[in-house]
Amino acid sequence: MEKILKPMSGYLTLVICLGLFVASIYLFVTGVDNNIVLVVLALLAFVLSCFFLKGLMIIQPNHSRVLNFFGKYVGTVKDNGLFFINPLYSSQKISLRSENLQGQTLKVNDKMGNPIEIAVVIVWKVGDTYKAAFDVERYSDFVKMQSEAAVRHLAMSFPYDNLEDDHAPITLREGGDKINAILEQELTERLSKAGITIQEARISHLAYASEIAGAMLQRQQATAIVAARTKIVEGAVGMVDLALKKLSEGNIVELDDERKAAMVSNLMVVLCGEKAAQPILNAGTLYN
Questions:
Q1: What is the distance between the alpha carbons of residues 140 and 204, in angstroms, rounded to a whole number?
Q2: For residues 203 and 172, what is the distance between their CA atoms, to the nearest angstrom?
Q3: Rounded CA gap, 50 and 7, in Å?
Q4: pLDDT at 197 over 70
Q5: pLDDT category, 269, cuts 50, 70, 90?
Q6: Within the chain, what is the greatest distance between any pair of CA atoms?
């Protein structure tokens, strides 16, 4: 469990160290010729100045020091400035700044077994210095490995799109913020044991693998064409039905079944054709 320490300021100790150092020089110069006591005092003052100097530490903004005393965790200092601690403490520097992890592009299979390429960008920082220092070997390597595992699991849990799974509630391509939220949650669960806080996680690259990209593009185009044609036919049928009803209700012209069939055929050709219809004048009747 992380424990926050508030050590004493180090400015007074710095002044004392400088005073002892100056005193050691003066005593050594004074007693080097005929006074062994002054030489011993000079050496003692020098050793004390070095000992106290070892207890001084400077902590930059958004950095911390994890302190140990002969293998026992003492606490963590997160304040910035010059401080004095027990010179026998050992310290480990841990940055509290936010860091970006640009994951490499991974080739994995989605839920439907299609090979895809996926990459993510993760913004993270150390939240618990005790876990980062003692629960894992190297927390930065731990973040990289677990992030890759989380991305692979995410890709295998959802289809790339809904071409093969029409009832999929979430897809990688259209999931958007929901997919990113699921990724953040899984990363938080995986990295919490290392004291890592996930600030943001987003998919930066998503595409079909190169070996099936062409086939999938043709399939998407065919699906789009079929969907568009379906809409066109539905609209044309509605317009033909409306035209027949208006002609019948207004008693504009009496059409038998053969004439209705011919009219429906002509209107469907005009409405569903890809190109504009070319008018043809009929000087006779529908039966000639």
A1: 21
A2: 9
A3: 19
A4: yes
A5: low
A6: 143
